[in-house]
Design goal:
six-stranded parallel β-sheet, 2 domains, globular, 17 helices, binds uridine-5'-diphosphate, Rossmann fold, alpha/beta, seven-stranded parallel β-sheet
Length: 444
């Protein structure tokens, strides 16, 4: 890398999953555009492709993780064991720098706390990036209260009931399992467990103004709300898997707004029954579909071996099945009329930024509260009430792409897209918040 005057390094420590790495790298691009040098300290597992980001410097921390380890176990193992390796590689890196270079701050994923300890030891300021939304953090903060009131004795019959004082959530939308882990994340959010001066939120004020304000009341950290991150500065590809581009020419041949794009993100997996229901639901919808099936995501198979035998014949060229795509490019394509999603937060933001309404099939974590908001508050999503059931899927695709109801949702989604565009322009809320973050980092 060429030396051009003094370096002000910002050290990024992403959590090694697609939905976490992407916003962290995008934040890196935005900060780089203002003159910071970017160092990314990452695990070997799920490491970003450094050749896609030639302006950044990458430090690899060795590990023995594999795709068989669950995300919660990996986060726990990182927090338990990675302080020493991170400290060692950062200290070595700093030794090699020129005397007038400095590390301005460490920005680490909200779910990782080991970088804070290193920041303290090396006397470097620390900031957290929340890759998830404020809604979920707020919903989490209610869960201990519900437990204390004995309201979480969960019979199936009460899962549909509305949670008192937490409109519009039902008990089934709340994160009731993985509770200890979730509360830890909440403590991280409100800053009582982490020595960070600020939290950067990968969210939009226009979507979450109230939830952010409520959380801010509980927190001593500064909040910066900066999204759409990917619209602030264009970034190199952040995909951890190879993107297939063949689907773009397939999309080019479809009518405007006619295609349902289907993807369940980078971690959700399916059993054979769900896969088969999805397949026949898409076949019965009679609409063109672009379906991402991530290799290894269907239990008991490598890729699509468990699709029904006559399915591909039956749908012919009306369906395009791929392993992984450039999702933002797909969502921006004029042929895409709807997104059937697991409602991961990045997917949700990307869909909103392209004005694409959604079919919501949440699985775990924050996806359920997001889906509830998409359908009841923002009015741009249809929830699948019975999960993967072919009849409901076929009807939902038609409602979204053909019926008047879907057109209305698209109109609202486009309104949000336009507001998001305004927020990153000069004077917009995201623009201002980003500049305030830059000033905050410069003040260290
Ligand atoms: N994604 C992609 N190509 C695909 C499917 C997904 O690039 O074929 C990206 C998508 O753009 C998003 C991320 O993977 O940025 C998924 O993150 P999200 O928070 O939606 O869900 P998660 O994978 O964390 O469950």
């Amino acid at each position: 890398m060429q030396k051009q005057g003094r370096h002000n390094w910002v050290v990024l420590v992403p959590c090694p999953f697609q939905g976490h790495t992407t916003p962290m790298l995008q934040l890196g691009y935005a900060l780089h555009s203002t003159g910071f040098s970017i160092l990314v300290a990452h695990t070997k597992f799920n490491s970003p492709n450094s050749s896609n980001h030639p302006d950044f410097v990458f430090l690899t921390m060795p590990d023995n993780f594999s795709n068989h380890d669950g995300p919660f176990e990996i986060v726990d193992a990182l927090n338990a064991n990675f302080k020493a390796p991170f400290k060692e590689c950062l200290a070595k890196f700093m030794e090699k720098q020129e005397a007038d270079d400095r590390v301005s701050c460490i920005i680490s994923d909200l779910v990782l706390d080991f970088p804070d300890d290193v920041a303290k030891d090396l006397n470097i300021p620390s900031v957290a990036l929340s890759t998830g939304n404020a809604l979920f953090a707020l919903a989490l903060s209610y869960v201990p209260r519900l437990h204390a009131q004995g309201l979480i004795a969960l019979q199936d019959s009460s899962l549909q009931d509305l949670v008192p004082d937490l409109h519009p959530f039902r008990f089934k939308d709340l994160p009731l399992s993985g509770f200890a882990y979730m509360v830890k994340v909440l403590h991280n959010v409100i800053g009582s467990k982490r020595s960070v001066s600020a939290v950067v939120w990968n969210t939009m004020d226009l979507l979450e103004h109230q939830s952010l304000a409520q959380l801010q009341q509980q927190s001593q950290c500064l909040f910066f709300t900066i999204d759409p991150l990917h619209k602030i500065v264009p970034s190199g590809s952040t995909s951890l898997l190879e993107e297939e581009s063949s689907c773009i020419s397939w999309l080019d041949n479809q009518a405007p707004r006619s295609v349902i794009y289907v993807s369940l993100g980078s971690t959700t997996s399916l059993d054979e029954k769900a896969l088969v229901e999805m397949a026949w639901g898409l076949a019965n919808s009679h609409q063109p579909f672009l379906w991402v099936i991530r290799p290894g995501s269907v239990s008991g198979s490598q890729w699509i071996e468990l699709l029904p035998e006559n399915f591909r014949e039956q749908v012919g060229d009306r369906g395009c099945i791929v392993k992984w795509v450039s999702q933002t490019e797909v969502l921006a394509h004029r042929a895409v009329g709807g997104f059937w999603s697991h409602c991961g937060w990045n997917s949700t933001l990307e869909s909103i930024c392209e004005g694409v309404p959604m079919i919501c099939w949440p699985h775990f974590g924050d996806q359920k509260v997001t889906a509830r908001y998409l359908s009841t508050v923002w009015g741009i999503g249809l929830e699948l009430e019975h999960g993967a059931e072919r009849g409901e899927i076929g009807r939902a695709v038609k409602r979204l792409l053909v019926d008047e109801e879907g057109k209305e949702m698209r109109r609202r989604a486009i309104e949000l897209k336009e507001k998001a565009e305004v927020s990153v322009r000069e004077g917009g809320s995201s623009f201002n918040s980003f500049n305030a973050l830059v000033e905050h980092i410069r003040s260290f």
